User: Fold these one by one.
Assistant:
Number 1:
Amino acid sequence: TSFSTPKKKKRDDGMREHVTGCARSEGYYKIDKKDKLKYLNNSRAFAEEPPADTQVRTHPPLTARARSEQRRLLSSFTGSCDSDLLKFNQLKFRKKKLKFCKSHIHDWGLFAMEPIAADEMVIEYVGQNIRQVIADMREKRYEDEGIGSSYMFRVDHDTIIDATKCGNFARFINHSCNPNCYAKVITVESQKKIVIYSKQHINVNEEITYDYKFPIEDVKIPCLCGSENCRGTLN
């Protein structure tokens, strides 16, 4: 049962020659310190000496005022559609600080944790894209399960976003007859998305609201927004 281990052979360049022809089949093995030093010295020398035609320039960090000025100039150079796409990219990488907690309007609500200027993207309404037939089936099923609140948002005639069981904080936004935000459908890479825009300046700890714009129906849903020009019903 004793086998003689093959002798370690080295190639002309100093690297170990693999007897089996495959490095993976021979497992791990130690490398001589001399070989390690050769590799480390070569890698350090390559890292310390950049190419002659390469110039390394360091820029000072941008201030908040400079960043806002860049955003303003970028928005002025682009059209309305490109501006929406630019803002949506900013929304993905620079999300607004929001929190959900108990609301005086209804149950839970969404509140701002930082000042939000007018005409800014606040949050995207995320959910599952479904058809009208599936939406009707789910609405009946949700009623049977005891889910009274509706988190379905219509995008167009054929598409509805269902955020009941798969959504984000946007579904907690309450309705108001005098809202500080509004919903807008934008197209990003041939896909329609619903984004909540700020209608006016929003202060810290102020609740985010928008008009649901439910269709007029015989069975009325009472409105609890409490604003001065409250219509009394959602539909």
Number 2:
Amino acid sequence: MLPKDDSCAAVEDRAEGDPQHPLILERVEKKPEKKWHTVVLDQVKKHCSCTPEKVKSKILGFVPILKWLPHYKLRDWILGDLMSGIIIGILLVPQSIAYSLLASQDPIYGIYTSFFSSVIYAILGSSRHISVGIFGVLCLLVGQVVDRELALAGYLPESSIGINNSDTLLAGQGNSSNVECDRSCYAITVGATVTFTAGIYQVLMGLLQVGFVSVYLSDSLLSGFATGASLTILTSQIKYLLGLKIPRPQGYFTMFKTWYGLFTNLATTNICDLITSLVCLAVLIPAKELNDLFKSKLK
């Protein structure tokens, strides 16, 4: 029996085909404990040493496209990827315009966001299953902040823009005749500031490993949130379907306030916008149902 103070290690020296080979124990001398500053210096040298392999690994980690692009099978994958890109690009144009209206921005900014975010993620992204782009709930949240800040800055509501453009330009900065930023410029400034601030919070939450909170979110909570968000998005789109120019309500119970504004202004519905919306729905909904029905038979 070996003393308790000695450290022993089991060395398995078996020959192939001889499972009955005995297990041999060898005595290993106990290494002297290192001081804390020695341990710190060893860790610093380990992580801060610069070798060609580490430089290559860091570059491929930050720019993953350099890792998978040389192995891309051009002949086998280019046709499917090209068709997918064209179809998604066609779908993103009207979707981006609708989402930019939710965020109280000009339609062009929604197209910019969809295009550049996809290009940036193709270069820096590490997962091919993540959908990158703009989402309805986020656009609604940003739009609430943008509308509130526009009202505080003195800009006229969206429904009053077409009445007198010169008054709208002079509405921001009080009665000053020198206006450096109009309503659209101020709206995108607020939206970009909110987005940048949210990105900083997300980076900090990632560094602090706050993602464990999602484990405690039940399926019922997530389903209720998704249902509420879909109803809110549907409500916000009705005024565009009818061609009504109604300012977005602020505060609590915004969905009920929006429906009240829709019913009270129903007599001013734009017939051309309504007919165009109904024709689009009559084409898109049957096409979606037919696609779900016959997609297993189509290549």
Number 3:
Amino acid sequence: LLRGRFPLVCLPRPPPVAAGSGPVGPGGGRTYAPPAERKRFYQNVSISQGEGGYEINLDHRKLKTPQAKLFTVPTEALAIAVATEWDSQKDTIKFYTMHLTTLCNTALDNPTQRNKMQLIRAAVKFLDTDTICYRVEEPAALAELQKNEWDPIVAWAEKRYNVTIGSSTSILGPNISASTKETFISHLASYNMWALQGIEYVITQLKSLILSMGLIDRHITVEKAVLLSRLEEEYQIQRWGNVEWAHDYDLCELRARAAAGTLFVHLCSESSSVKHKLLQD
């Protein structure tokens, strides 16, 4: 809550932890964080359609989830995207670069055992601590930057969803009305369970429901959403300098995660089949 009042020093992120655990989501649950690397054990990647959806084949073996369930996704577009992740791995499989695969594993195994309404309420709860709703009064330059950069996206969200959000310099944050929360609950309910997993993932990356919905609704780009989510950090970097390579790495990683989560949401909502396969010999 004291961000913006002291210079920040960003350190490199720790390496991924073992499979079966991972970052805490807004609902308190954990998503999968697979082992860091493994030697590539397959030559060819393909997709096939089964009874439960589209499957990923590594040579003649079908991909499984960490809980040994058959890896089956609901749309052909998503299957091709996941297959492309596996096909793009070189001699070593770098699991930490395969965000779509990890999201699919989370959707299939549902390690936190949450239902649709629990996912929705966890996402909407982020309104109470939304990054762009918390403002500083000083330094004046940062306060002005927040107003100029964050106010337009808040105004867009209020108009888009016909709600009142506002902002606050109080440590308690803005007072979000019950009607505003119910409106977002109703909107999120229009997404399927798979897409909701992706939405929650994007929210945890950006620390903002408002920025996440602006990104998913194609109102802002990934680059813009990430910049807005890191506004205070970037301001401090301009004043105090950055840690060599660490800030750039963190920025690129956040962009990759936000982009993957957004793509996941759209691919999970894709109903039409892909006529031309992207994976060709």
